[in-house]
Design goal:
two-stranded antiparallel ribbon; 7 helices; globular
Length: 260
């Protein structure tokens, strides 16, 4: 059964899997969180002009990108720093200052895998970086750097790291995600009974403008070492936002209404 809220399983053509179970709920969490963060930033900007928040995602920016779903009309002063963007602390500061000159405040959403140098990394049993156990965080590095340079607005930079909350706060679970997780699990059982091992149940997307999930299977050796990154055409040319194509892809996954 596919697993990873990072949505980094598969290929950039989305032929192996369209999205992984859990991603829709993590995306919904960030869509709603950023709306609340915007109100906080708006009210506190005279003393806290920049809010920095860190999302999960080691090498892919799908969760960071999901923050845009909370502001699809681009009315908030949000900058998204995905792992694929190849920005540095220096270019991030330049972008933030440009935003501060325009609006006096800025919200920075940054991948946990955004390159800011040494974090005193700790590793899990699979050899992956355990960001929550490391000596510092990307968000703190960004906060420290921005507070050390001259900002074009009064006030300080503050940071928040939701951590595992973004994958475990059930009130933000997507009803679409809940249904699809059940169905892909059911499909996996059917495959196991009827066709044996060596397969992964998968979620694909039906052609057309109306979103519909299709459940199928792919060989395990096809998916075992696959890694998917944000497609380049889903990242804007300045590397700090996503295109409308990403919004069209991800918006159906977060669903409407609240889970029961």
């Amino acid at each position: 059964v596919p697993k990873t809220i990072d949505n980094d399983l598969g290929d950039e053509e989305f032929t192996i899997i369209d999205h992984t179970p859990g991603y829709g709920s993590a995306a919904r969490y960030w869509a709603y969180l950023v709306q609340n963060v915007n109100e906080e930033n708006k009210g506190m900007s005279v003393s806290e002009c920049v809010s920095v928040l860190q999302t999960m995602g080691r090498k892919s920016g799908f969760i960071t990108a999901a923050a845009r779903l909370g502001d699809p009309k681009r009315e908030m002063p949000i900058q998204l720093y995905m792992a694929e963007s190849n920005h540095t602390l220096e270019s991030l500061a330049e972008n933030v200052n440009r935003q501060l000159k325009e609006t006096g405040r800025c919200i920075v959403i940054v991948n946990e895998g955004f390159n800011v140098g040494d974090l005193g990394e700790q590793y899990d049993g699979f050899g992956h970086i355990e960001y929550g156990a490391s000596k510092t965080t990307v968000a703190q590095k960004v906060v420290n750097y921005l507070n050390s340079v001259k900002l074009d607005a009064r006030g300080n930079v503050t940071g928040q790291v939701p951590g595992v909350l973004q994958r475990s706060v059930s009130i933000h679970a997507s009803k679409v995600d809940i249904e699809e997780a059940y169905e892909v699990g059911k499909k996996a059982v059917e495959i196991g009974i009827n066709e044996g091992t060596g397969w992964m149940a998968t979620i694909l997307r039906a052609p057309g403008n109306i979103y519909k999930a299709i459940y199928d299977k792919v060989p395990l050796d096809t998916v075992a070492n696959s890694v998917r990154y944000m497609p380049a055409n889903w990242i804007t040319s300045d590397g700090i936002d996503v295109t409308d194509d990403f919004v069209s892809y991800a918006m159906p996954l977060i669903g409407d209404g609240w889970p029961s």
